[in-house]
Predict the 3D structure of the following.
Amino acid sequence: MRFEDELIGLLPRLRRFARSLAFAPADADDLCQATIERALKSRDQWQPGTRLDSWMYRIMRNAWIDTARASKRRGETFVAAEAGESIGDAGDRAIEARVELGNVGRAMAMLPPDQREAVALVLVEGLAYKEAAMVLEIPMGTLTSRLVRGREALMRTLGEAA
Amino acid sequence: MSGEIDPEMLMAYADGELDPLSAKRVERAIAGDPQAAATVARHRALRATLARAFDPVAAEPVPKPLLAAVETPKVVDLASVRAARRRTRGWSGWPVGGAIAASLALGLFLGGQLDGGAPVTSRGGALIASGSLDHALNTQLAATQDSAATTRVRVTFRDRSGTICRTFATPALGGIACRDGDAWVLRETRGRTQTAATEYRQAGSDDAAIMADAEAAMSGEPLDAAAEARARAIGWRSR
């Protein structure tokens, strides 16, 4: 399979990961765009036979950290309160899903970045602890402690809704 | 079996991350500890909540601009080419003499292996693109070509005399072709290292070397998409 085809196959998951990191849909797709550009630019660094998804997650995570740092410098906030509340004319199920994404997304957006990325990789993307630790280039113990703190914070924020 | 089961361990148990022995230990502990059992349940419920919230994003159709970003990347990254050139102490001009003779033998040898007839012929001692390669060089634009095309044109540029040159890559052969009258003269060819075992066709060191040589021969910047289209419209003539 071509590199491009495999990359396209990963886009739905990368968009999901982006939303769990960046929350506002426009920011999330910007993040996807930046990630794709970085990946194509450094595609020689990817070793065929290794997992492209892990490699892409790492690139996206690094792109997100860079963007987050830049916007922090500009004094912008991580949380876009209005995002996720635009309920179009979609069906009931879609509206429900969007409201849920709104609440959960806002709760995610309140987490410190190091906890948010751990939660996103393990609980949203379904990576094993070991895989997530490799993507984030941190020891397992660091991953589990960030993960447990992030989850406890989410449970508190979401309360009974969780 | 006594002693605290720490929060990390309960979480790891909820996620199915524990080895069987540790999992048994947690199971025994939570059997007599409703609070710990409730924590495990909440961990699992949270995972389900996050999945319900974010999974619909993965089910949405991918927006077109993102697909386009994969299929039509920016034509060339000059900075990385220049960096590669510095590393290899690149050419100051075109390879001549022996290099071309070696390329000729290589090109003709590889020619027979490609579909659509030999992509390279010899005319008056010069190596000329023919067949599928000639066609690709005449018609394909780097910015819009089908990404599945067997022959790919990478960069179009003018050398210092104003002649249009294009770097290309077929599965077996890469190089630089420059317009001379109605033909594309191959100024440089290199066999591309190919491993049949891998399904990924990635840029290798040969491509980097070609790019570095192109950069060395280039006058100014590579042609952008619009300039490339104009050059094609006037039959790739030099200025």
Observations:
- The domain at 3-161 of chain A is CATH 1.20.140.160 (Butyryl-CoA Dehydrogenase, subunit A; domain 3).
- Chain A touches chain B through 50 residues (CB under 8 Å).
- Confidence is low (pLDDT under 50) at residues 77-90 of chain A.
